[in-house]
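ARCHIVE CARD
CATEGORY: sequence design from structure
SOURCE FIELD: tokenized fold
FIELD CONTENT:
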């Protein structure tokens, strides 16, 4: 069924929106793009956006200070819109608002998404959720602020129009957004490339300690809690490290482990051409896209790497032996 935003909003008075935990550029871009559009075009609607703390770099997008980082008195909404989120658990603290809402809509591009809302607009081959939000809006009514948010989201999830998810449609949408008078260069520089000193230091640490495994087809790096404390880094400071690892010549898969608790790791996976990392992440309870996926895994870093590489080996060479990490 085709989703028509105007029909979805008919008769609604209170709308809540949310995106995935540890919001990234596409999550913030798609949420803010739709949020700003609803505020401008449907002023009588009460629209509330719930997200975990938005990384400071995204402050150049209008009204990010209005994002609600916790649930207040209002807990029931006529409609909850989930954006850039592959499953309910990934909505984090806002999940309860999704459960309580009269009606739910999911806008997403994760291949692992099993259409968990009443209405679903899920296009796994789309570059980004921001691209999908653009498709739902009336182009004429897109303001400069909305365009800035969506452009940021598209730029982030395409690795600045580089990854294979970048389609001719993606470029056409980016062009239409540029014509709204945005400063695209500044958005990309400030939100994607610019790093704080701490971010660069922790990136350096991850690169220095990385290892090539599986006949140099895989690169792996681990950042432990004590390193985070040493550099005074926040989890959001690790954004981009796995993409940098992936750029290593000759490598097909990059594996980045971030220790979030003793014997517990947030695992980020990226691949270049062959390996479906979403299959691997999903196998261990996570999800994502064919070329970018994530999962939380328990055990020692050695166990986690062993388990992941066993699945990579199965894809690269069906029937491969299990222990291939050393
Ligand atoms: P990350 O490695 O955290 O940048 O995530 C890569 C992609 O996988 C993003 O599209 C995430 O939304 C998705 N992803 C990351 N972690 C998980 C998880 N635990 N469960 C489902 N999807 C995830
Ligand atoms: Mn995302
Ligand atoms: Mn996305």
């Amino acid at each position: 069924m085709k989703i028509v935003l105007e029909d979805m909003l008919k008769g609604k008075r209170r709308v809540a929106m949310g995106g995935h935990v540890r919001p990234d550029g596409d999550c913030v871009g798609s949420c803010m793009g739709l949020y700003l559009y609803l505020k401008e075009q449907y002023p009588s609607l009460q629209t509330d956006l719930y997200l975990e703390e938005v990384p400071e770099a995204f402050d150049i997008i209008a009204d990010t200070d209005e994002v609600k980082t916790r649930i207040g008195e209002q807990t029931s909404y006529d409609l909850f819109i989930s954006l850039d989120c592959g499953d309910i658990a990934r909505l984090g603290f806002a999940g309860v608002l999704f459960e309580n809402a009269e009606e739910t809509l999911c806008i997403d591009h994760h291949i692992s998404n099993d259409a968990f809302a009443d209405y679903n607009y899920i296009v796994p081959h789309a570059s980004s959720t921001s691209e999908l939000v653009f498709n739902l809006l009336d182009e004429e009514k897109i303001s400069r602020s909305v365009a800035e948010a969506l452009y940021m989201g598209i730029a982030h999830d395409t690795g600045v129009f580089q990854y294979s998810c970048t389609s001719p449609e993606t470029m056409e949408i980016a062009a239409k957004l540029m014509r709204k008078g945005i400063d695209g260069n500044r958005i990309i520089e400030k939100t994607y490339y610019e790093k704080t000193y701490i971010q660069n230091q922790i990136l350096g640490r991850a690169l220095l300690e990385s290892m090539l495994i599986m006949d140099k087809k895989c690169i792996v790096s681990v950042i432990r809690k004590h390193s985070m404390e040493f550099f005074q880094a926040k989890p959001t400071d690790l954004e981009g490290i796995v993409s940098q690892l992936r750029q290593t010549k000759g490598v097909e898969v990059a594996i980045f482990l971030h220790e979030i608790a003793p014997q517990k790791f947030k695992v980020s996976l990226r691949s270049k051409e062959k390996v479906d990392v979403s299959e691997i992440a999903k196998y261990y309870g996570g999800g994502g896209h064919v070329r970018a996926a994530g999962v939380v895994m328990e055990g020692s870093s050695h166990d986690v790497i062993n388990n992941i590489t066993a699945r990579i080996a199965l894809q690269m060479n069906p029937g491969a032996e299990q222990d291939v990490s050393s």
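CARD ANNOTATION: The chain is about 35% helix and 20% strand. Residues 26, 84, 109, 128-129, 157 surround manganese (II) ion (ligand 3) (CB under 6 Å).
SHELF: design records, drawer C
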